[in-house]
Structures are given as C-alpha cells and as structure tokens.
Specification:
Length: about 270
C-alpha cells in the first residue's frame, strides 16, 4: 500500500525539476528583472562573456570585453601611454620605449646605451665633445680649450703659457695710473685669457726700494689693482683674477742703479691654474 502512494510524489517532483531547468539562463546566475545577464562594467559585453569585468568606463573593448592593444606591444590601450610604438619595439610597463641609461634617447635610437647619469648627449645618445679636443665632456676638466690645442687625458692644454711683465715705465711716477703705452701689452694678456676661458691669473705688483716700506706696499697693490681693472673693462671676469701687492720685497735687479730700479718697478701675471 505504501509503494502505491510513492509513485505520484515522484512524478510531481520530476515535473517540477523539469520546469526549473527549461530556462535558457545558467542555474545560479544573477539576472536583471528582464531576465538577461548584467553588464557590470557597462562595456557592451555581458558578464558571462566578459573576460575583463573591470574595464574603465567608456573604453573601447573587443568581443570578450577586454581593451585592445592596437600597437601590439603587449600593453593594453587603457594603460598604454605610447599607443603607436613601432612593431617589435621593447617597451616599459606603460607601453613606451625604454631608456635604460636615462639620457633622454630611447634604447632603439641610442648608439651609446651606457652613458653616465646626467651626461649631456647628442641625438644619438652619445656624450658631446664640445671643444673638439677628443675628450668627452663628462671627462673633460677643461671644456673650453682652443681649437687644435694639445691636451692631456683630462682635456686640459699641455701648453705652458707665458704672460708678459708690465714694467714701471708704463705707470706715471709714484702713481697707479696706466700710461697709454700699456694698452698694447695688456691687450695681449686679454687675448690670451679670452683664448683660455678657464685660465685664472694672479696680478702681482712690485716696486723698487726707494721710499718707505708701507708706501711701497700700498703703491704696488694699487698698481696691480689698476691693471686688473683694465682687464675687467675688456671683458675678463673679475672672478678669474687675484690681486696682490708685494712692495719692494722681491727685486729682480739691484736697486743701486736707475736701470735696476726700473726693472723692479713692475706688474707680473702668474698663471694659477
């Protein structure tokens, strides 16, 4: 008797399950009120078919809801900051060509890919040699040597410079005022310092032994200062000049004759670098 009652219950259960599985949607899927799958990121591709469920709003996507990679560099359009890189180019995480040495020239165009940091380079990524002495700028300790000058491994001239001495005949007696004749001598100093823009010079004044020591010391300094002022007036930077007065302390001739005293009254130029 109990077996006969079980048959109608199994039939009802079978019909109920059959009705539940007749829907075209997947079992367990959340659907909108109208019975279709949602499009969570609103990219036009429904969630069941969307392989990229979090694409940014407004992004153009392919048939599976993912961003395009138009330049095929492996970086999707939505994060590609260089969306038109040439085929086969190695790029960084944002789709731009790498610049491993950070010189502003990308690897594919860089003929010198290992330049030191902060090195100024040309369009090929190679260090400049601004003065053409054969020593690259980042190694050149004397970057403005004249054309065709012989230089050492640091780019500095090996030429020993000799500057003229301005003797006492070019000054008014007991004064620091330069005579017009001094211009030609000092102009040669200006020319040399302009040819060697890194050259620094000490201008040193001397006197003969006549007069008091303190007076001679002051006069030698004023004459050296007058010479330095002339050089500055011709465009030589004051920072390149040092001024010193040594009075009568360093004679180069005897002070017992007029000829000797004339030699001792002088202004010398000493190269200090």
């Amino acid at each position: 008797m109990s077996k006969l009652r079980l048959i109608p219950l199994l039939v009802v259960a079978t019909l109920f399950l059959s009705a539940c599985t007749s829907t075209s949607q997947h079992i367990g899927m959340w659907v909108e009120e109208e019975g279709v799958a949602p499009d969570t990121d609103e990219d036009g591709v429904r969630d069941p078919d969307d392989h990229c469920l979090s694409t940014p709003s407004g992004l153009v996507v392919d048939a599976v809801g993912c961003s395009y990679d138009h330049d095929q560099d492996g970086v999707l359009n939505d994060i590609d900051q260089c969306p038109a890189t040439p085929p086969g180019l190695i790029v960084d995480m944002v789709g731009c060509s790498a610049d491993d040495d950070g010189d502003g020239v990308v690897n594919q165009d860089d003929r010198c890919p290992n330049t030191p940091p902060n090195t100024t380079v040309d369009v090929k990524g190679c260090s400049l040699d601004s003065d053409g002495d054969g020593v690259l700028d980042y190694k050149d300790r004397c970057p403005n040597t004249p054309p065709n000058a012989e230089v050492d491994c640091d780019g500095c001239s090996e030429v020993v410079l000799e500057l003229p001495t301005l003797d006492g005949l070019y000054f008014d007696r007991n004064k620091a005022t330069l005579k017009p004749e001094a211009v030609s001598v000092l102009s040669s100093v200006v020319d040399t310092m302009q040819r060697y823009p890194d050259l620094q010079v000490r201008v040193v004044g001397h006197t003969d032994s006549r007069g008091k020591d303190a007076y001679n010391q002051d006069l030698s300094w004023r004459r050296a200062r007058s010479v330095a002022a002339f050089l500055v007036s011709k465009g030589i930077e004051e920072r390149r000049l040092e001024v010193e007065g040594r009075g009568e302390r360093e004679p180069i001739a005897v002070n017992t004759t007029s000829e000797g005293r004339a030699k001792n009254r002088r202004v010398e130029f000493i190269v200090i670098n």
